[in-house]
Design brief:
24% strand, alpha/beta, 8-stranded mixed beta barrel
Amino acid sequence: MKRIRMLVNAVLAVIIVFFLSPAYASHTPVKFEVDKSYPPFSYTSGGRIYGFTIDLANLVFEPDKFKLELSSDTWNQVYKKLVEGKIDVAAPVAIVEERKKEVYFSKPIFTRHVGLYTSKEFSKNISLKNLEDFMVGVMQSDYTETFLKEKLGVNRYYTYPTIEDLIYALVDGKIDAALMSQEIANYFLVKNGLRDRAELKIKNIFTVKSAFAVSKKRPELVAYINQRLNFLTNKGIFDELYYNYFSTYSPEYYERKNRQIVISTLYLLLIILFAASMAIFVMTRINRRLEHGKQAYEKYAQLLAENANAIVLTLNLNGEIIYFNKFSQELTGYKNEEVVGKKWVDIFIPPHRREYIENLFKRIAEEKILNNHENEIVTKDGDIKWILWNNTLIESPYLNEPMIISTGLDITQIKKTQHLLEESYEEIEQTNQELINTLEILNKQSEALEEEKEKYKFLIENVSDCILELDFKEKKIEFYGKLKDIFDIEAIKSKNDFSAWLEFFHPEDRSAVFKKMQDAIFLHEENLEFEARILDKNRNWRWICAHVQIFYNVEGKPEKIIAVNIDWTAKKEYEQKIEYIAYYDALTSLPNRKLFEEVLEDFIKKAEEEKAQGAVILIDIDNFKDINDLYGHEAGDEYLKAVCQKVLEYLKSLNLNTFFARVGGDEFAVVLHGLAKKEEVIEVCTHLLNIFESEIYIEKLERDLFASASMGISFYPDDGRSVKEIFRNVDMALSSAKENGKNDFQIFLPFMLMKNLKKIEIEKGLKKAIETDQFELYYQPVINLKDMEIHSVEALLRWISPEKGMISPLEFIPVAEESGLIVKIGEMVIEKAFSDLKEWEKKGIDYLHMAINLSARQFKIKFFENMVQKLIERYSIDPRKISFEITETGAVENFDVSLKILSFLCQMGIKFLIDDFGTGYSSLVYLKRLPIGGVKIDRSFISELEFSKENKAIIEGIILMAHKLDLKVVAEGVETKRQLEILKEVGCDLAQGYLFSKPLPKAEVEKLLIARKITV
C-alpha cells in the first residue's frame, strides 16, 4: 500500500509540474545559462545545476524582482545562444576585445590564468613559437581558441566541447598539447586521477578576467548586475562565497583590503601627526611658561606624539636636528642623543643624494611648505627606508629662529603597491592643508591658556571618534569628536558625573567597565582599554572600543580622565556574521555539527560534575533522496525547513534542557540533558517519529509530502565520556535502526560496538589479504541440460587466511562492498579468471565459458570497461567466452551508467546474466532495455520446486518470457534429481548445483573439465 501511495504521489507531482505553472506577474524573467561541465564554476548532477556561478547568480538576481530561469549546455552552444539573444546572461565569460562587440560585460568576478599542458611522456621541445608544428587542442568557442588563432598565429588545431574532453584527448595521445585555463585544468586532473599523466609545460601564458556576459538585447541588466556585485562585495557576501569554493579570497579582495588599510592608516597617522606636532612644538616648546592646568594637555599631546607611528622631526634651516621622536628612533635604530645637534643629511642620506636634499632645505626656507615629498633614508643597520615627508617652516616671535617641522610616514611597503595610493592623494593633500592651517592658527594663539584650549578643542571636535574628558578638580565632563553626536550628551553633561556616562552602557557590560576603572585607579595605572556596548540617541546598542588615559596629581589621586571611544559596531557585526556562518546551517538556521559538538562537550562535562545524565538522538530522514529526485531540491529544502520547525516547537515544550542541530545533509541531532530516567527518551523518540511521519504542506508544490525517519540513541556519560565516543555509538545505533527496516529507533548496546569492531577487523584483514594475495578462485561447473555436458564454470571467490583458514564469503563480501574494497578485489578476480581460462585453453579445454560475478560498486568506477578490455587483450581471451553476472538491483541502481557500460562490453562479445532473477522489484521494467544474454533463476525458487506448484509456475513463466526475448536461462542451486527432471521438462537451458558438483579448487575442477561430462 505504501508503494502504491508513493506511485500515486509521483504521478500527481508530474501532473503538477507539467500543467500548473506559478504566476510571476511582477517578476522579470532572466534566462541564465552556464557550461554544464565547468566545475567548480558550474556542473550538473542528478538533474540539477551546481557551482560557484549558480550560487552567485542566485545572490545577484533578487527573487522579488527577477524570475531566474537556470539551464546548462555545452560552452559553444551557451555562447552562441547568448550572442543570438536566446538567453539573457551567461557566466563566467572571459572578457576579450572580440567578445565586447557581441555581448555586454559586467564588472569582473574572477581572474583566470592560461597555460600549455602536455602528457608526462611528451619529450619534444615545444614552445609558443613552434606550436604550429604540433597537434594542439583547445576548448571550442573559448577565449583560448581566439588567443591561439589570433595571438599565437596557430590556424591548425583541434577543438573539444569541454575541458574534460580536452584533457582525455591529451592523456590518450590524440593531441600533443592543450591550451586551457590552469584553474579548471588542475581541478579535472585531480578529480580524475590524471596528475601523473599530464603536466603544465608553460604556465601563465596570459591572464584574463571573467564576468557576467549579457545579451545585447538586455543592456539594462549590466548596471543592475554591477550594482548587486558592488552590494555583495561591500557586505562581504561575495568574498565569503568565493572563499567557500576556492579556500582563499580573490585577488580583488586583497587589493581592496590593502587599499582600505593604507587609506585608513594614512588618515589616522596624519591626524596623530598633527596632534603630535601641535603638542610638541607649540605646547611644550613655545608655551613652557603657561599655567599648571595647561600641563595636562601638554602631557596628553606629548603622549600621542611619542606613541605616533610616524617620524616627527624639528630642524633648523641648516638641517640640524633639534627634536627626534620615539618612532624615529625605533625606525632608524639611532638614539636621540646620537642625532640631536647633527645634520640630517650627514647621518641619514646616501652620499649621492645629499646635494639634492640640501637644495630641498633651501626650497623650504623660500616656499615655507614642502609636502608629499618622497626620498630614501639609511638606517643604522644599513637598511633603506622610503619616507613620505610633509615639511612646514614655522616662524614665530616665541621662537629664537625659524624651525622646520617634518612629519614622515614609512612607505617602504606601500611603495610596492603605490598604485593603491593614487586614489587617496587628493584627500591626503586636502587634509594636510587643513592641518597646516590649524597649526598656524594654534601658533598665533599660543599666548594664553584659553586660546590653547580652543585649539585643542578644534582638533578633537574633528576627530571621527568620541573623546570624553573628565576633570575631577573642576567637576566637569566634556565630549569632543564627530562620534559624540550619536549619543545623548546633554543628558550626561547635565549631571557632570562620570557615572551618568556609565548608565548608558549595556547592563551586562556596566559592572565590568566600572570594575576595570576602579581597579586601574586603585593600582595607579595610567592606561586602560576595554570593549563594551553603549546606547545611542536612537535607542540602539553600539559597540565601542575605549582607550583611556588617567592623569594623577602630585598626591597620586586621579585628576583627569581622557577616553578615546572608537565605534566598533561594524567590526562586531562582521565578527558575528563570520561566527554565524561558522556555527549555523544556512538553510534551516539550526546550529551545525561544529557548534553541536562544542555544546555536547559542555553537556558531558556538566553531567559528570552534576552526576546527571543525558541522551543524544541522531536522526536520519529515510529515503530523503527520493524527495529531491522526484520533486526537486527546492521542494526538499522547503520540507527540511518545515519539519525542523515542528521538531523545534516540540522540543521547546519539553521540561528538559534540549539542543537541536543539523549535522549533515539529511541528518539531525538532539541533546536531551538532565533526564530523570532513561525511559523518558523513548517517549521523545516516539513523538519525533510521528512528526516525521506526518504530512508536511509544501507551498511550492501546493501539496503535502510525508517521509519517515530512523534514529539512534546513546546516553552520556554511561555510554561515553567524549563527543567522539557518543557520536560513534549513536551512529552505530542509527545503522541498526536502518537495518531493521527504517522508521524506527534503536538504543546503543555494547554488542553493536563488538559488531562494528568485527567489521573493522575484517576490513583490516581484507586490506592485508589484497596486499599478500590471500584470495583463491573456486569453480562450480554449469551443465548444458540438453547433452548434460559441462558448458561453463562460475568463478567463486574464496579468502584463505593464514591465521583463520577459509573465511566465508557471507562474512567478508558485505564488508568489502561497504568499504569499497570490492572494486580492487573484483579486478583481481577478473584477472585470475582470465589467466586460468587461458591456461585451460592451452591444455586443450577450448570449449569452456567463464562466468564471473560483478559487484554494483564496480559499475561506479570510471574506466571499468577499459580495464576489462585491457585484461582481454593481455591474456588474448575470446570475449564471447566471458559472461558477467550482476544482480538486477545492481544493474538498475544507476541505470544510465549501467546501460552505457553493458552496451560497450556487449559490442565486444561479452555476455551478461541477471543473477538472482525474480528477487528484485524491477525485473520486468528494465529487462527488455538492458543488453543481457540470459537470466539466472534464484535458488529460492529451485529449493521448493518439487513441492510447490506456484514455484514451478513461476519458473515456467520466467523461461517462457526469457525464450521469447531470445535469452538463456540458468537454474542455480540444483540439489536433487527430481529438480533436474522438472527443469528439463519446462525447457531450462543450463543448471548448476551440488547435484553436479560443489565449488572446487582449480586443480580439482580441471579433472572434470577434461572429462567434460558429469555423472549424476
